[in-house]
């Protein structure tokens, strides 16, 4: 695969952003839409040209030196996991633009320009093969999102955007410090200051366990905030509630996945021993998140807040799958990243469409919409079911895989380490508690659907019909939903397509993690061995 | 003595220009008066170009410091000059427009440009100092003109108050570090920096030497605006005209850091790259408190100049991390060389901070009597991207860069400090640096949000462009610089690394050496492994 497609995916939105920024105010939507549709071409080419049989090798690699004294290079390349996440990003692009057509009425140039910049930064994160390009793009996603929430959000937008920026920026400064330490360690071992991810992941696991633990926690500081894991999730409901529809869709669809992607790409390969050591801790946090956020959802009256908290709950499963650290867990997790983007993205779109018509998100004020808006209600029920995990839709296979992984985690563990295994692993208890999360999800989502779609029709006082939009969904709105719905169905009915595509890189990640953990163990035991040998030789001459 | 002349040709050029500027600045013919800044500009360009050709001085502690240091001084000085043009004599030239005769007695233009060049001459001399006396004189030559520039920069009493405050504290600072220099001389028996370094490398620092170093650092903390002598910064920056504040943010800070590097280098780093414990803990505490005080107090400010003053304090704290890291072993790469990181960061800091000050100078509002007054309140910047796009975007880009937002210039600079700190095993201070970057995000974001994003919720005073075209130009130059220097960062980083090559003796420190060996087995890899040198 030629690197030109990835480069195009990064460059086209940037050029489009320039075009939109200097275009007429009226033409902004058209230009943004054209740019987003245009990026579909290289995106589809990549999906088509990618050689899925090549294992976990990076394809379409290219790199430019920037500041070699600091090891700064700009190098790109994709494997199957990155490719699928890029595909999700590219797919969501036109959808969010289409969803903003009537919602955003003023200052459109700024809006669409930043949306395009965000698109490019997100592709950059997944395509980065170099630590610093990853970090730069990872951070750069903050700025467009900050602008989108700050300028186009609802009433409490200033607080929401500030909280969003500061939480994530603080976390990622810690991540930067941790990653710098890793780079320094690699420099000590090899004599080369390099930020190349492949090089780092091959050397860094040699770190002693306590160093690995510090690095892991530094990385968690950045990635867990982004996911978000339980104690640091408080920015998310606020940001989601205040963001414009497109912002929420991107946030739920792609930005949250940067955290889990970071854990998968960096935390596991760089600090395997510490990750295995602290897996129960991470898993506990995610299980608490699953149950706690689920219970919060149950008492929400604000429908957007409900879906936002459901994201916290759902991504708990995703992290649980990572913490299980076996093939089914990682596959489930990657599947979850993709399917959550489709179903929750869809839910946020539905809420956005409703909000445009009724100007409220309060379930006490709106209800029984099935009689007035049957098409809307159909899609609402559909995406809610996908989110609940109805078999046949996309939520089911990924959730089940994550749970099975948590169940089997100790079996895989024992198989991997017959002798000398240390640390504890996940076990059935984690799966049992996480499983209640599925039940809770069914409760709150069905409760929401029941209240808002069925029952007697309620509308807020002083409600007028929208000047432009019809009562039910317009054709444009239906077309924005159809790709997501089709995606949900395909992923739900044939998850094998995706699992096959990502199986090689996931297998390699798991194997490398256990081998490298063993490697670290090996050094430790060697030292201990040498010490004990010395003492025992005195005792037993 | 005569061979020293080859190292100070740039200073001589600036000195000649100073003399010319003194005369042309109050020439009765207007065209010649207006030609004055051009003389200074030509001199700066010439000085910068000649500085890059300066031969290396094998006897100095940093043999190749001069080319890079003087080049960035001339480069940033040029942006400063563009920014400063026309600050004084505005009323006078208005009167001349109305047909009144030019009164040289009322004019301060000549002095203003002359003092500016004097100050830069002093700064360049600091870079080439190899002797305590020379260092002291150079530092004073840097600072003395700035006191007067603060006083004459506006007609307001606030400027005079600021100047007096600045002068007295400056005199106190100078007295303290002069005392320190004297004690160092007492301990080492020489005023030559290389000889002092030689002495301290083989002898214990002793109470006298230690007291000398500590007092010098304390006095120099006035120049870099760090704890414990940072109190003047917000008042002085607010009292002076914005272009002069921009100059205060860069010129004395650069002089202070060059002097601190020289003084700390005499004590030297041991073979594990550590300073003596006492000096190290002192700088550690200084850096830590400076960062926290600067950033937390900046959060509370509504005046942009005060905010930038506290941010200037915080940035000094960041750069002190580089002093802690030290130059590393011989031939250390950039990521290990904290001194190179400081030298590079000075350039980044100069370029990005001037941008915001230039914008403040480029807009004005009416005060109570209806006289034009520089914008200072953060509300004055509201919606600037809409009303004056170039100025607004300058604020946005420079503030984001100061925040260390990737991939802007400030991020690359901070990355150098991060890397140097981590490689020198100064992990705790690097974490403090990280935390502080996050705190700083709050107030820099406020600048970005006010200028670009937020609509006002209270009626704001009308803000107009001030008649200084040059300040808009300076602002645009620094905003472009923040992005353009990224592209050519590689040669700059290389030059900073060359400049920071440490030629001094490695301090032999038996107690610490044993301690290091126990605590860490990796350090020896760094010292002995030649594979690091690419």
Output the keywords:
heterodimer, A: 541 residues, mainly alpha, 2 domains, 2 strands, 3% strand, globular, disordered C terminus, B: 534 residues, 3-stranded antiparallel sheet, 22 helices, 3 strands, 71% helix
Percent helix of chain B: over 70%
SS class of chain A: mainly alpha
C-alpha end-to-end distance of chain A: 63 Å
Mean pLDDT of chain B: 87
The secondary structure category of chain B is mainly alpha
- Low-pLDDT segments of chain A: 419-423, 535-541
Coarse shape of chain A:
globular
Structure at a glance:
Chain A is mainly α and 541 residues long. Chain A has helices spanning 4-21, 28-49, 80-99, 108-127, 131-140, 142-152, 157-190, 197-203, 209-226, 235-242, 245-270, 272-298, 303-324, 327-358, 369-372, 374-388, 395-416, 428-453, 475-493, 495-539; strands at residues 59-67, 72-78. Chain A folds into two domains: 1-140; 141-539, no CATH class.
Describe this structure in words.
The complex is a heterodimer of chains A (541) and B (534). Chain A has helices spanning 4-21, 28-49, 80-99, 108-127, 131-140, 142-152, 157-190, 197-203, 209-226, 235-242, 245-270, 272-298, 303-324, 327-358, 369-372, 374-388, 395-416, 428-453, 475-493, 495-539, and strands at residues 59-67, 72-78. By secondary structure, chain A is mainly alpha-helical. Chain A has a two-stranded antiparallel ribbon. In chain A, α7 packs across α10 (235-242) and α14 (327-358) packs antiparallel against α17 (395-416). With 534 residues, chain B is mainly alpha-helical. Chain B has one domain (2-532). In chain B, strands 2-1-3 form a three-stranded antiparallel β-sheet. In chain B, β1 and β2 (372-374) form a beta hairpin. Classes of the chains: A mainly alpha (541), B mainly alpha (534). Chains A and B meet through β1, α5, α6 and α7 of A and α17, α18 and α20 of B.
């Amino acid at each position: 695969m030629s690197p030109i497609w990835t480069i195009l995916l990064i460059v086209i939105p940037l050029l489009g952003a320039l075009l939109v920024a200097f275009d007429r105010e009226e033409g902004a939507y058209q230009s943004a839409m054209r740019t987003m549709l245009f990026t579909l071409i290289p995106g589809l080419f990549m999906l088509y040209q990618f050689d899925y049989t090549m294992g976990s090798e990076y394809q379409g690699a290219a790199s430019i030196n920037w500041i070699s004294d600091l090891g700064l290079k700009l190098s790109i390349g994709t494997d199957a996991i990155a490719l699928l996440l890029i595909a999700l990003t590219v797919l969501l692009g036109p959808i969010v633009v289409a969803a903003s057509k009537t919602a955003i009425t003023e200052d459109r140039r700024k809006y669409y320009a930043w949306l395009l910049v965000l698109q490019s930064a997100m592709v950059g994160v997944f395509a980065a093969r170099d630590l610093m390009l990853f970090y730069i793009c990872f951070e750069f996603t903050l700025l467009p999102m900050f602008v989108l929430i700050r300028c186009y959000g609802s009433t409490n937008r200033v607080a929401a955007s500030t909280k969003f920026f500061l939480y994530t920026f603080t976390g990622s400064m810690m991540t930067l410090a941790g990653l710098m330490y890793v780079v320094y360690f690699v420099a000590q071992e090899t004599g080369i200051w390099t930020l190349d991810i492949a090089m780092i992941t091959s050397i860094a696991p040699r770190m002693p366990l306590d160093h690995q633990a510090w690095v892991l926690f530094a990385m968690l500081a950045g990635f867990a905030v982004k996911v978000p894991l339980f104690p640091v999730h408080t920015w998310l409901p606020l940001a989601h509630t205040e963001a414009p529809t497109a912002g929420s869709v991107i946030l739920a669809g792609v930005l949250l996945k940067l955290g889990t992607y970071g854990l998968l790409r960096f935390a596991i390969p760089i600090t395997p021993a510490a990750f295995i050591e602290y897996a129960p801790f991470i898993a506990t946090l995610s299980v608490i998140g699953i149950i706690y956020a689920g219970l919060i959802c149950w008492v929400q009256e604000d429908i957007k807040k409900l879906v936002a908290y459901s994201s916290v709950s759902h991504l708990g499963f995703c992290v649980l799958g990572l913490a299980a650290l076996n093939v089914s867990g990682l596959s489930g997790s990657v599947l979850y990243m993709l399917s959550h983007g489709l179903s929750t993205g869809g839910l946020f779109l539905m809420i956005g469409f409703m909000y445009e018509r009724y100007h409220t998100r309060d379930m006490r004020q709106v209800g029984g919409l099935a009689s007035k808006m049957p098409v809307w209600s159909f899609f609402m029920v559909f995406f809610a079911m996908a989110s609940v995990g109805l078999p046949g839709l996309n939520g089911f296979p990924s959730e089940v895989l994550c749970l099975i992984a948590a169940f089997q985690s100790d079996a895989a563990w024992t198989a991997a380490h017959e002798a000398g295994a240390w640390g504890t692993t996940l076990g059935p208890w984690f799966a049992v508690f996480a499983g209640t999360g599925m039940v809770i999800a069914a409760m709150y989502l069905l409760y929401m659907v029941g209240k808002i779609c069925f029952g007697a029709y309620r509308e807020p006082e002083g409600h007028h019909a929208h000047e432009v939009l019809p009562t039910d969904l317009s054709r444009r709105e239906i077309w924005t939903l159809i790709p997501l719905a089709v995606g949900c169905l395909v992923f739900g009915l044939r998850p094998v397509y995706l699992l096959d595509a990502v199986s090689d890189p996931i297998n390699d990640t798991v194997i490398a993690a256990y081998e490298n953990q063993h490697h670290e163990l090996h050094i430790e035991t060697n030292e201990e061995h040498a010490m004990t040998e010395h003492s025992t030789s005195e005792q037993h001459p | 003595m005569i061979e020293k002349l080859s190292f100070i040709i740039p200073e001589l050029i600036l000195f000649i220009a100073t003399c010319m500027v003194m005369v042309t600045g109050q020439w009765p013919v207007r065209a010649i008066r207006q030609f004055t800044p051009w003389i200074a500009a030509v001199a700066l360009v010439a000085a910068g170009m000649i500085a890059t050709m300066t031969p290396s001085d094998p006897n100095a502690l940093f043999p190749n410091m001069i080319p890079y240091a003087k080049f960035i001084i001339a480069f940033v000085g040029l942006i400063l000059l563009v920014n400063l043009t026309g600050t004084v004599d505005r009323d006078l030239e208005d009167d001349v427009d109305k047909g009144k005769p030019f009164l040289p007695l009322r004019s301060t233009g000549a002095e203003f440009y002359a003092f500016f060049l004097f100050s830069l001459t002093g700064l360049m001399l600091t870079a080439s100092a190899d002797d305590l006396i020379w260092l002291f004189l150079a530092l004073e030559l840097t600072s003395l003109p700035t006191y007067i520039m603060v006083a004459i920069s506006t007609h307001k009493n606030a400027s005079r108050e600021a100047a007096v405050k600045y002068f007295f504290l400056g005199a106190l600072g100078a007295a303290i570090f002069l005392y320190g220099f004297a004690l160092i001389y007492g301990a080492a028996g020489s005023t030559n920096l290389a000889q002092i370094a030689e002495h301290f490398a083989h002898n214990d620092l002793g109470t006298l030497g230690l007291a000398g170093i500590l007092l010098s650092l304390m006095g120099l903390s006035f120049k870099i605006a760090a704890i414990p002598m940072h109190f003047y910064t917000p008042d002085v920056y607010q009292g002076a005209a914005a272009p002069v504040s921009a100059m205060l943010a860069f010129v004395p800070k650069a002089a202070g850091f060059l002097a601190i590097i020289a003084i700390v280098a005499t004590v030297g780093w041991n073979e594990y790259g550590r300073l003596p414990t006492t000096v190290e803990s002192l700088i550690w505490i200084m850096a830590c408190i400076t960062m926290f005080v600067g950033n937390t107090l900046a959060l509370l400010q509504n005046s942009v100049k005060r905010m930038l003053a506290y941010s200037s304090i915080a940035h000094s704290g960041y750069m002190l991390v580089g002093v802690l890291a030290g130059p590393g072993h011989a031939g250390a790469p950039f990521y290990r060389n904290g001194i190179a990181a400081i030298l590079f960061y000075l350039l980044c800091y100069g370029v990005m901070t001037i941008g915001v000050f230039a914008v403040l100078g480029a807009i004005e509002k009416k005060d109570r009597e209806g006289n034009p007054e520089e914008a200072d309140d953060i509300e004055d910047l509201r919606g600037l991207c809409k009303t004056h796009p170039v100025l607004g975007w300058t604020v946005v880009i420079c503030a984001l860069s100061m925040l260390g937002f990737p991939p802007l210039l400030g991020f690359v600079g901070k990355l150098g400090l991060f890397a140097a700190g981590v490689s020198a095993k100064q992990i705790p201070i690097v974490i403090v640096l990280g935390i502080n970057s996050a705190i700083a995000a709050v107030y820099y974001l406020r600048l970005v949000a006010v200028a670009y994003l937020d609509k006002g919720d209270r009626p704001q005073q009308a803000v107009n462009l001030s008649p200084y075209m040059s300040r808009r130009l300076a602002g645009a130059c620094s905003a472009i610089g923040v992005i353009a220097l990224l592209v050519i960062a590689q040669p700059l980083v290389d030059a900073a690394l060359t400049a920071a090559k440490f030629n001094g003796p490695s301090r032999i420190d038996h107690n610490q050496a044993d301690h290091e060996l126990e605590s860490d087995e990796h350090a020896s890899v760094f010292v002995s492994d030649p594979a690091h040198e690419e």
